[in-house]
Specification:
5-stranded parallel β-sheet, alpha/beta, 16 helices, 7-stranded parallel β-sheet, globular
């Protein structure tokens, strides 16, 4: 089988680490893995992908003619296209319609707003018009089974936004992870090391208010520091300069005693990040950050997005299919873990590892992808015109990207 992913390799974030895991799986299972990208500036990720025998094609993927040339070349034999962004998925659907092709085309939504067309328009009238035009298109495309969600939250937001019932065909496939095997002794050693550290870690892209929970975490840490004098905080966060400056300004508002126990990092190599997580007591975040910790036998707490408050109400193993939170004061969950003795902490850490192993195994992800039927595109001529027009309008707007050139890394 050949898998083609249409994405970006000039950014940092969850999609790039997801690409790495998918490529590792493809190499292990002896499948071909190709990536189409307009830029390949993320040398760290590109080098790792090439070491996994990934073929990378750099061209203007927004140019339908160029995309078609590459698709037709690479889809001569059995193949599946995978996108993480709605526009890229639609571009490939247009090519399927134009060429009367039947190869598989999937959209895996890893962002809560993936399917919410029109949301970016500040003018409410324009938003309502675009939303109304895309509603029947979303419903029609969903029947193919090729539209997936990372979690229930994305499905619920999409159904609420359009007023549709999509659950019959829109499949929820939890974020695919490669789960390492640990012996009982290895697990005990990892957990003992984490328990002794009393270090809280949070790693995310500087994207506020989407990842604004970091501001709430800093305030919570200052409060907790008065109660648990031996705790420390590892904060890994980088991105657009304006967002980074806001975060640094927030850190400067904290007391000297609190700041001394915070180690702020620019972006770092993913392998180094995983090693660092494995040496910490707990992890705070959302999405991939939660399960990255569970894989290392480190308890993690999911928090809410699009807020500067610190909202959360569970440790990962208690609601393993929920990688974000909607209610509760997350500081209470931190206290729960910090108050545990080693036996309690050990049990929680093991439960987190077992939960991620059961729910997030990458084999299940590709098993579902492979089960999708090949089909012709269901797009109408109106759908093609609508998408093309909306894409053109969006291209004229300023799109906030997290380019490698805008990110400082650890020395």
């Amino acid at each position: 089988m050949k898998y083609i992913v249409n994405d970006y390799l000039d950014t940092y974030g969850g999609s790039t680490t997801l690409l790495l895991r998918m490529a590792e799986w493809a190499k292990r299972t002896k499948n071909m893995f190709l990536i189409y990208t307009p830029k390949a500036g993320n040398k760290e990720i590109v080098d790792k992908l090439k070491s996994l025998c990934v073929e990378i094609f750099v061209f203007d993927t927004g140019n339908i003619k160029l995309l078609e040339q590459n698709i037709l070349r690479d889809c001569e034999s059995e193949c599946t296209c995978i996108s993480f962004i709605f526009k890229q998925y639609m571009d490939i659907e247009i090519i399927k319609k134009k060429t009367n092709s039947t190869f598989k085309n999937c959209l895996y939504a890893i962002h809560p707003d993936t399917y919410l067309k029109g949301l970016g328009y500040s003018n409410k009238v324009c938003q309502k018009i675009i939303k109304g035009m895309y509603k029947p298109l979303i419903s029609k495309l969903n029947v193919s089974g090729g539209m997936l969600c990372m979690d229930n939250d994305i499905l619920a937001r999409t159904e609420s936004y359009y007023g549709l019932n999509l659950s019959r065909h829109m499949h929820i496939q939890l974020l695919p992870m490669i789960i390492p095997y640990y012996t009982e002794l290895e697990m005990d050693e990892k957990i003992a090391k984490s328990f002794k550290s009393k270090t809280i870690i949070s790693a995310c892209r500087a994207d506020f208010p989407y990842k604004g929970y970091v501001f709430g975490l800093l305030e919570a840490f200052e409060t907790l520091k008065k109660e648990y004098t031996d705790i420390s905080l590892e904060l890994i966060c980088s991105g657009e300069k304006d967002d980074v400056d806001k975060l640094k300004d927030k850190i400067l508002t904290l007391s000297d005693e609190t700041r001394e126990c915070i180690r702020y990092h620019k972006w770092m190599d993913y392998a180094d990040l995983k090693d660092l997580i494995g040496n910490c007591f707990m992890s705070i975040g959302m999405g991939t950050a939660i399960i990255d910790a569970a894989v290392e036998c480190v308890p993690s707490i999911a928090v809410k997005y699009n807020t500067f408050d610190f909202i959360g109400n569970h440790i990962f193993y208690e609601k393993p299919e929920l990688l974000v939170a909607y209610e509760g004061n997350a500081i209470d969950q931190l206290r729960r873990l910090l108050d545990m003795d080693f036996e309690e902490y050990h049990n929680v850490a093991v439960k987190c590892y077992k939960a991620v192993k059961f729910h997030y195994n990458i084999d299940a992800f590709f098993e579902y992808i492979n089960s999708i039927d090949e089909s012709k595109s269901k797009l109408s001529h109106f759908d093609v015109i609508l998408h093309s027009l909306n894409s053109y309008i969006n291209s004229r707007k300023h799109l906030k990207e997290y380019s490698v050139s805008a990110i400082e890394k650890e020395d």
